[in-house]
Amino acid sequence: MYIALSWRNLWRNKRRSLIAAASVFFAVLLAVVMRSVQNGSYAYMIHSSVKFYTGYLQIQGKGYWDNRSLDQSIVINKKQQQEILNIPHVISAVPRLEAFSLVSHEKVTKVSQIIGIDPILENNMTELKKKLVKGKYLTDSPDGVLIGQGLADMLKVSVGVKIRFTNH
User: In 14, 39, 60, 98, which residue has its Cα 20 to 30 A from 20's Cα atom?
Assistant: First the structure.
């Protein structure tokens, strides 16, 4: 009896029923489309950040996240690096040494993140060489620093100028 009454009530005012059905249909369609866009955006953001910097996996010394000290650093030799590369689905392994330091030039001092890299392996992963604005890309020589444009502007330095790093 309830089903029969409901069915009759739906068709008593056909225009109202069609408007309500169309509203629900478009609301569900819009919700599905927006959720798809949201999931696609999340996937793109994750892929972009992973490709640009960290990769999907980081190996750190035990206790590193407790105080992020250079004393918790680990050194990976060529054999260990090859073992990591032999893991299925691993396509590259890029060693880095990260710290924070005071960077100064003349009377200007700023705090900055310092990242020690292997220039060739880093460029293979992040294509850092393509993002270079001025100067030459790093080589295996210990003489050279690559700094961001923002930090260079703050310190008022350009290519060839010496800067000082101070770490405690």
Answer: 39
Q: How far is CA 91 from the centre of its chain?
A: 18
* Residue 78, number of CB atoms within 10 A of its CB: 7
Over residues 77-113, the pLDDT tens digits come to 889 989 999 999 888 888 888 888 899 999 999 999 9
For residue 110, how far is the Cα from the chain centroid?
A: 23
Phi, psi of 155 (to 5 degrees): -80, -10
Collapsed DSSP state (helix, strand, coil) of residue 115: strand
| Residue environment code for 13-43, b if the CB has 16+ CB neighbours within 10 A, otherwise e | eeeeeeeeeeeeeeeeeeeeeeeeeeeeeee
**Cα–Cα distance measured from residue 134 to residue 13, given in angstroms and rounded to the nearest whole number:** 72
pTM: 0.67
